Amino acid sequence: MTEYSVRDVPRQAFVQFLAIHLYRNKLLECPVMSHNPANASKFANFQKWWFLEAGKLIVQWYEAPSMPPVQHRKPNMTKQERDAFFKNYSIVELINQYVQLGWVIQDKTGIMFVTDLGKDQLNKIVREFKVKQDAKKDAQP
Known about the structure:
Blueprint: H1 11-24, H2 31-35, H3 44-63, H4 79-101, E1 104-106, E2 112-114, H5 116-139
Antiparallel strand pairs: 1-2
Helix pairs in contact: 1-3
């Protein structure tokens, strides 16, 4: 069987596949949903954004370790700044969940690295993605 890594597949399509995989397999939990499941319908778009962001960030850290996109809170924030801060809080929660899974670590300078466990898990998901992608190609006339 051919071995594939995240670098061997189209990034955008894989990020979408990964977001669905993380959601369906309950590997991560969107913080808004865990705090108030009764309002799930109101936050469906946010949940979709959050899982896509989860996929984008871990693929980014897999390809090139980097700093997470985090901002600090300021007094007297505008609505746009509050929205950005809320998304920022959500990304911090995402990082915490990845750390708890053992998929990422953060060094003393704040740079995020995907662990060997995280790389192995992502490579397994890539294989699943490639199988589905190849099956679609074979099904076309």
